[in-house]
Amino acid sequence: MGKCKGCGREIIWIMTRSGKAMPCDPELVPYWEAPKAKQKIVTRQGDLVSCELDPRSEKETGTGYIPHWSTCPVAGQFKRRG
Ligand SMILES: [Zn+2]
Description:
- By secondary structure, the chain is mostly beta strands.
- The chain is built from no helices and 6 strands.
- Bound molecules: zinc ion.
C-alpha cells in the first residue's frame, strides 16, 4: 500500500507484464473486456486491458484494478520520480 502524492488516497502498485509498477486503486472491481473502450484495467496477472466497468452482460470478464490516473482528481499533476 502507498498513498497518492496528488490526492492522498490509498493506492496499490501492480507490476505489469512489461515490468513497470502501476499505481492503482486498491479495490478489486469487475470488468467487461471491450477492445475499443477508453477505460483501462490492470488484472492481477499484470495485463492492461481495455474494458467497460458497467455491466453489459451478466458475466463479467474478470476482476482487476483501475489505474489510479483514471480516477485521481489531480492526475494532471502526476510526475514520475527517479
Ligand atoms: Zn491521486
